[in-house]
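On to our target:
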Amino acid sequence: MTNSDFIKEQKPEHKQLIEEMSKILLKHEPKLNISVANIMGSNMLCFSPTENGVEYRYGFSKHAKHLSFHCMPMYCKPEINRVFSKQFNKTKFKKSCINITDTLNFDLNLFEKLIEECANIKYPF
């Protein structure tokens, strides 16, 4: 599956959010490679410091009721999760991912602050 194929499979509101969030990711981490990889049994659009995509730093995965943004720096540094999970409204945080159900009201400014923080964490973790 290509990156374009992954995007085409998304709901219209998810496509737009993925594109906006991707711009923020690449603004702060321009050396990331983008590819689709099968992670945990489903296709994921991966942003990786390596070329294989399996060692991803960030990723998007499709679900029936939400869009998941996976963030490995947040998984490796739980204090980031604690700080940002309190600031995002109507967004469910897990250890390494943010499940976004309300894509139209997702706070991209706060997301950019999260990525700024994560970009300072060196890979490998």
